[in-house]
Amino acid sequence: MHLKIVFLCGALCLLAPNTKAQWVVSDPSNLAQGIVNSTRQVVEAAKNGQTMLQSFQQTVKIYEQSKKYYDALKSVNNLVRNARKVQLCILLVGEISDIYVDGYRRMVADENFSPHELAAIAAGYARIIEEAAAQIRELQGIVNPSDLSLTDKDRIDVVERVYGVLHRHRDLVRYYTRKQISVALLRARERNELGSTLTLYGGEEQRYW
Q1: What is the mean pLDDT of each run of 10 residues along the chain (209 residues)?
Q2: What's phi and psi for 73, nearest 5 deg?
């Protein structure tokens, strides 16, 4: 009976074979960690005086590869409740990556931030995403467990806890993004350049953050 949740969660990762949405082939924790590693390279590039936009392109490339995985996972339907929650956990990591890449791409193009500030902002994003990746690795241990002594309830409790943590991380990365953008808008207002900065980040109707 205690293997039931394992089979349910495992089935989630096998329901999109055409896109290879599996733990083994496309490990979401590795996808997130790849973005973290690339972001750290962006930070180092900024410290060395290199162009931020050029350095960020590698992060975007990794993100676009991982986005194919998350988009495929979104199309997986008709899951039982427990497997559905696993799916939502993984998609939360994808959403965190979406917010980061979209927001930071605009910040790199924003003259209201210095290279030093952009490096610090990237480091903050990297920390949040790395923590999210760690939660997914823990979830992976439930999907492919080595400890068969865990009961169904134990596994479900872990899934629920990881979901709660990732949900808070999603909200945190939204807040973090809004905070940085508010600084840019304040500086733009002081320079009488609010209009162009609003265009960069989107007005009330287009606001993604």
Answers
A1: 42 40 57 90 73 80 88 82 86 95 93 92 95 92 64 85 96 96 94 91 63
A2: -65, -35
